[in-house]
Design goal:
heterodimer, A: alpha/beta, Rossmann fold, OB fold (Dihydrolipoamide Acetyltransferase, E2P), 4 domains, 10-stranded mixed beta sheet, 6-stranded mixed beta sheet, 17 helices, about 30% helix, globular, B: mainly alpha, MetI-like fold, 2 domains, 14 helices, about 0% strand
């Protein structure tokens, strides 16, 4: 193994940039890290190079632990995106730089330099300076310079990013050739799918600091594990359906499931249909392919060798579109198809058939349940119920103060009870909030479950005080959705989303809506005001439209009440809601969870479960599976404004 | 359309007339302020012949004053180059609390009158000064002596190197240095072989400005030195004293010599400035 990354993470001011990435790269391999800009791929490369120290994890190069070694001692070569050749040195001096700092004699340096100039195709240009070279030539010099000292690992950070298309293609070919010739282990970072496919032995796809999938180009394109990779690499249609009678069902279409591990009846399943696997014809005869019915052509694009079409099919029962986006105002399923450029369709509503597809299991949400005091049973019960309903899994965390081990016995008892395969238990020692935050940082969770809330002091005063303080600190320091199960969650069929002041928050509506969809619950969008306001009504209607695109039943209510909290509490009593969704109060405000804070008043005034959602939340509740649907909704919303 | 062409050329002529007028004003202004005094200085220096000029500038007092001026100028420039580079580096490359405060503090010598700077040194190191016990303990006499004059000169010429180097450092960024690290160069090698060559023209520009400022310094040095002829008298202080003593030829001769040095420096400054802009 040339490069072994073990659980490396990078935090910038508690912002996770790289999230527990583990990776092994073979000797002589050309590995491509592919991700959107800002996904953390360059940070990973810099950590391998030794220019950025990892916050956690270890890095081995050729069996040597280099985690704490400076860049000088790692025996690597690095090429940046921006031409980083030394402008005060000529080409020859640039290439010899790595050799001259190693005190290698001049005649040997000259020999190596000429070798490299030949290798990168710049023979005879040794006397030129950077300003006398084109961008492509500068990058060739940078490559030669990085290779001069015969490094064991070559790192390339978007090396072709600043070049124009034609030169880029040329340089790619030479890079591949040189890499093959020298057999040097290479890691290349890029955001371009085409580049990755062309160069890579293997590709690692990075999303928001996480290594989502690793594999050969063809495997990743044809058989991705996640809908993120499916839509990030190339065009195609992704639909979510259900498992019925051992098949993946998308409306009238049943697709056989080749690998049934981890698939269970009624669970969600996704299908990826690449454009080239869609067959369009004017005749109704299926010709042995799977028929999807007739579709209307809504978009046509000429791309040279082929024509890309988008077809709108009537809505399929129990099927949700993940990608591409359904145009605003349309209903149904959009299928992306490709036909030869010279081919033509007589019928504007051709028959749509599939000659190939790929099934994917959507990721499951992971919940973290933490008991803040002795209300363990209600919490455990709720966690189990949610795990089952959401098709997810949960971790049950107990935090004990480092000194007293009074709780350990209790904890062990709890562990015995947790004999439920999708819930695991763990124990941490130390300060409650610190440990919960550490757990959230170390593993990825989609929701935090807490038992107790900001009750008016009913029990011992000290208990109230400490748990309310803990909640306050948690709300201040994390953006994960927090579900306060209060008396316990048993059924959720009616959800109340509160938009107390101002316009409805986008995130709480979206996340509340997702939860409602997964639970099959009805949503009431509530706005409380002292006076009626037409503009608010329009905003609420827009939010309701967003929820309807998620196939959630919605009704909208505007309540007139002098005090928002009083209005919300009255609505909870009248409407018999099972879950209340509120936005997280602004941690910067002076009233943050103070006595007259709306969230606090709601928490004190009801024993129903409350879900607190931060508007800063970035990772959505259900992980990468719905990443593209986030995009869909925001486009829809923009369309309706 | 010959008519409009004619009116156009007329407008052009008018335009160039205004242009030339403005240029003439600029030249007149510059000659009045720059060339006039220069001519008067040359006239004054040679008014009693070259022999008198020569004897004036080779007199022991003048030679000592010139030597001291060069010593102070060189010393202050060396100090400000070394520390200025370090300060510029820290201010550009590091993030720390109070960075903006220190960045503002760098401009203090520009804002404070040199005379006040000298007074501050007296307050710190004069008789019963706050830091006098400390200076005495290490056997350093700062007021009315050369070290104090050096300190004053260094203070007033502090900002130039920092202000010239900082924008270049932040503009070139860290990528070239990082590239050097990955090629095996130590931080010191990287500084000498990558960073320094990159900033050299800006640095030299800053150094020459520092030197020019240090050679011409008067107020701060006057307050700190006491101006004892043959001991703590610099060239500018000598000129001041000669005028007091009605030794006009001596004053003009030394002034002319200083002007010549400044002229050479000016050429260097312009040269460095051009190269800095180029790179």
């Amino acid at each position: 193994m040339s490069i072994v990354l073990n659980q490396i993470s990078k935090l910038y001011r508690s912002q996770v940039v790289v999230d527990r990435v583990s990776l092994e790269i073979e000797d002589g391999e050309l590995f491509v890290l592919l991700g959107a800009s800002g996904s953390g791929k360059s940070t990973i490369l810099r950590m391998i190079a030794g220019l950025t120290p990892p916050t956690a994890g270890t890095i081995h190069l050729h069996g040597r632990d280099v985690t704490y070694l400076p860049a000088q001692q790692r025996d690597i070569g690095l090429v940046f995106q921006n031409y980083s050749i030394f402008r005060h040195l000529n080409v020859a001096e640039n290439i010899e730089f790595g050799l001259s700092v190693r005190k290698i004699p001049a005649n040997e340096r000259a020999r190596r330099r000429d070798e490299l100039l030949d290798l990168v195709g710049l023979a005879g240009l040794g006397n030129r300076y950077a300003h006398q070279l084109s961008g492509g030539q500068q990058q060739r010099v940078a490559l030669a310079r990085a290779l001069a000292h015969k490094p064991k690992v070559l790192l390339l950070d978007e090396p072709f990013g600043a070049l124009d298309v034609k030169i880029r293609a040329q340089l790619r070919r030479s890079l591949k050739e040189i890499q093959r010739k020298l057999k040097v282990t290479t890691v290349l970072v890029t955001h371009e799918q085409e580049e990755a496919f062309e160069l890579a032995d293997r590709i690692g796809v990075i999303e928001r600091g996480r290594l989502v999938e690793v594999g050969e180009s063809q495997t990743l394109y044809n058989k991705p594990q996640t809908s993120f990779v499916a839509t990030f690499l190339g065009a195609g249609t992704v639909l979510t359906g259900r498992v019925r009678e051992g098949c993946a069902r998308f409306g009238p279409v049943d697709l056989p499931i080749p690998d049934k591990t981890g698939v269970h009846e009624g669970g969600r399943i996704q299908v990826l249909i690449r454009p080239e696997h869609v067959v369009l014809s004017d005749e109704s005869d299926s010709g042995g392919y799977v028929s999807m019915g007739r579709g209307r052509i809504i978009e046509e694009r000429f791309t040279g060798p082929e024509r890309r079409l988008r077809l709108l099919l009537p809505p399929l029962a129990n099927t949700r579109q993940v990608a591409p986006a359904v145009p605003f105002g349309e209903e149904g399923v959009v299928i992306e198809a490709a036909i030869p450029a010279e081919g033509s369709l007589q019928n504007p509503e051709p028959y749509v058939r599939l000659k190939g597809w790929h099934l994917m299991k959507p990721p499951t949400p992971h919940l973290l349940a933490v008991a803040m005091d002795s209300e363990v049973d209600a919490l455990r019960h709720s966690a189990r119920w949610l795990v089952e309903k959401l098709d997810g899994c949960a971790t049950f965390l107990t935090v004990i103060p480092s000194k007293g081990s009074r709780r350990i016995a209790e904890m062990e008892k709890g562990r015995g009870q947790a004999a439920f395969s999708r819930i695991e238990s763990c124990l941490r020692e130390g300060d409650f909030v610190t440990e919960v935050l550490a757990e959230l940082r170390e593993k990825s969770y989609e929701m935090l479950l807490l038992a107790s809330a900001l009750k008016r002091p009913s029990g011992p005063a000290g208990r109230f005080h400490s748990s309310s303080l803990s909640l306050e600190r948690l709300l201040q320091q994390t953006t994960i959705p927090i579900l306060l199960v209060q008396g316990g969650v048993e059924k959720i069929s009616r959800i109340l989303i509160c938009t107390a002041a101002g316009e409805p928050g986008k995130v709480d509506v979206r996340e509340g809506g997702r939860l409602a969809r997964r639970l099959g619950a009805h949503v009431t969008l509530l706005h409380v005001r002292a006076k009626g306001n037409a503009r608010v009504a329009a905003h609420l209607e827009q939010a309701a439209a967003t929820l309807r695109t998620l196939e959630v039943e919605v009704d909208v209510r505007i309540r007139l009440a002098p005090d928002p909290a009083a209005g919300i509490l009255a609505e909870i009593r009248e409407g018999n809601h099972d879950l209340i969704v509120v936005g997280r109060p602004d941690p910067g405000s002076q009233k943050f969870l103070g006595d007259d804070d709306v969230t606090r008043q709601i928490l004190s005034g009801t024993d129903r479960p409350v879900l607190i959602i931060s508007s800063e939340i970035e990772a959505d509740l259900w992980g990468a599976a719905t990443f593209t649907s986030t995009v869909v909704q925001s486009q829809n919303r923009r369309g309706s404004v | 359309m010959p008519v409009s062409a004619a009116s156009q050329s007329q407008a052009q002529r008018k335009h160039s007339f205004v242009e030339w007028g403005l240029i003439a004003v600029v030249i007149a202004y510059a000659s009045l302020l720059l060339l006039g005094p220069l001519a008067a200085m040359v006239w004054g220096a040679f008014s009693e012949g070259f022999a008198r000029f020569w004897s004036e500038i080779t007199s022991p007092d003048v030679l000592h004053a010139l030597k001291l001026t060069v010593l102070l100028g060189g010393g202050a420039t060396a100090l400000n180059t070394a520390f200025g580079l370090a300060i510029a580096w820290v201010l550009v490359r590091h993030q720390f609390k109070g960075k903006r405060f220190i960045n503002g503090l760098v401009d203090l010598p520009f804002a404070v009158s040199p005379v006040i700077a000298g007074l501050m040194l007296i307050l710190l190191f004069g008789r019963d000064g706050w830091l006098t016990p400390l200076a005495d303990a290490i056997g350093l006499k700062l007021v009315f002596s050369v070290p104090g004059m050096l300190l004053a000169t260094t203070f007033v010429s502090l900002p130039f190197v920092i202000r010239e180097v900082m924008p270049i450092l932040s503009q070139v960024g860290t990528q070239q240095e990082e590239a050097a690290y990955t090629l095996g160069a130590s931080p010191w090698q990287t500084f000498l072989r990558v960073t320094l060559p990159t900033i050299r023209w800006g640095l030299l520009y800053g150094i020459s400005l520092t030197l020019a400022r240090a050679l011409g310094e008067f107020g701060a040095v006057l307050v700190v030195s006491g101006g004892v002829s043959g001991l703590t008298e610099t060239a500018t202080l000598f000129i001041f004293r000669s005028l007091d003593d009605r030794n006009y030829v001596g004053a003009y001769s030394v002034a002319l010599l200083l002007a010549l040095i400044s002229f050479v420096l000016l050429i260097l400054i312009e040269l460095f400035k051009a190269r800095r802009v180029e790179s």
